[in-house]
């Protein structure tokens, strides 16, 4: 999370006036993210809630001591909106969309449902 503000400031800086940034983030309160984040946080209470590190495949180079991928941080939707606005992005109520995304197997059985947020943030035209 400490790098997100810097990254968003850099993105805002390179956008043309009126340019848009579209973000898609999973709802971290919805499965399968909720239980994965909870389990990771319980095992790593020193890391910010919303952080997760996935284990690399077993066939990964055993000479490399780092058995985990770099950490990923899933911000809460409200946290992300406040962060975007704090660096200067403009966001209106209709710029935030929420969707349920379902996947099915070949037999048409539901496998997973995800809740995703889409945010359109823009640089001021002025």
* Beta fraction: 25-35%
Structural class call reads alpha+beta
Number of E-type strands:
5
Summed up, the helix count is: 3
In angstroms, what is the radius of gyration? 18 Å
Quick summary of this structure?
This protein has 126 residues and is of the alpha+beta class.
Task: Describe the overall structure.
By secondary structure, the chain is an alpha+beta fold. 25% of the residues lie in helices and 26% in strands. It contains 3 helices and 5 strands. The protein has helices at residues 4-14, 33-43, 77-86; strands spanning 20-26, 51-52, 72-73, 96-104, 110-122. The strands form 2 sheets. A 3-stranded antiparallel beta sheet has the order 1-5-4, covered by helices on one side. Strand 4 (96-104) and strand 5 form a beta hairpin. It is globular and about 50 Å long. The relative contact order is 0.25. The mean pLDDT is 88.
List the helices and strands and how they pair.
Blueprint: H1 4-14, E1 20-26, H2 33-43, E2 51-52, E3 72-73, H3 77-86, E4 96-104, E5 110-122
Antiparallel strand pairs: 1-5, 2-3, 4-5
